[in-house]
Amino acid sequence: MTKYRIHPAWLVAAVAFVALVGAAGFRATPSVMIRPLHEEFGWSLGTISAAVSVNLMLYGLTAPFAAALMERFGIRRVVMAALLLVAAGSGLTVFMRSSWQLILLWGVLVGLGTGSMALGFVATIAGRWFVKHRGLVTGVLTAGGAAGNLVFLPVLATLTENSGWRVAALTVTVAALLVVPLVWWRLRDHPAELGMGALGGEYAEPKPIAAAGAARTALRALGQAARTRPFWLLAGGFAICGATTNGLVGTHFIPAAHDHGMAETTAAGLLALVGVFDIVGTVFSGWLTDRVDSRILLGAYYFLRGLSLLVLPSLFAAAAHPSMLVFILFYGLDWVATVPPTVTLCREYFGESGAVVFGWVFAAHQIGAAAAATSAGLVRDQLGAYTWAWYGAGALAILASVLSLMLFAGRRLRPIAPGIGLAVAVAKA
Q1: Major facilitator superfamily (MFS) profile domain: from which residue to which, for each copy (predicted)?
Q2: Within 10 A of 310 (CB to CB), how many other CB atoms are there?
């Protein structure tokens, strides 16, 4: 076994963090280009938003297949291919002339690329390279998504405003291509390649992977996991997580605040603060996950989130008063704090299949987000206010807390064979 002064797992995590920051930044690009594209091509906002919707759905639905591809072909190859897809999807937009090309490039190519570097990638890196500090690493890598939006969005907005949307699109292409050699140089598929075990674990040869295709592997994992109670409890809770974050607050907070007289720039600044506190909350949640039962953490996170959403309608005003700032602080800390314990539970309940199963759980997150975004808009159209959307989301978050605590009655599963596959329960949780 080879010895290193610094365990290579930390270098792998660092490269993964860079890729995740980039992926989050690439996903932020459409939000700064909607207006310029509308003005230049005359496309409706609905048409442009359709490309964004395709991007969001593929971002979620690609995750389980990407995790299966990483099992089959290796992490490094999949991430490099994902970066090349993002580079192509963004770069080719400078030549587009029709709206279907926008949907193909932004929606499909960039959606597939960023989805391959989503939270399934986080679960794979943390599960394969770390035993010790696994929860903390999961939190740090998850926070990379928030950091990417914070870093890239102001830069891309400035480039679009001063130099045009094509320069911003080409900047994303160059950034994606610059990460490719770094991934090739430092990202390794398994600790055994370097003659060592995961950080905090024993040396072990990689388990042989079945020859089944990635799609078959991912669907098989879904089919087997879907026959278990823990999967539906985790997926249901995470769907509510997506509904109460990206779907509702991320999409409708600004127009809801504007309904109460708050300037859009002020509301946008409050959401930016959510992103800042999100980084702190997710890293801290990862640290807690290494020390506290993940089911208890999820129960607490969702319950407190539900209470905060029930209070939110009374906090809206024309100015950002202290009570609203307290809400922003809390909601930022709780925004994706649910990810580290959810990743941990997927691995605990589904063993070696955990990363692929988490990909499906994350797909439920995105479906929940899409459903909430549409539902809240309908509530606003029909009732003239978002009040009942916030109340409904608060009740759902409390339900997610109950679902998380119901995991105490579940049973952990073990792989039926090397690779993907689940067997009957072997121990009480």
Answers
A1: 11-412
A2: 17
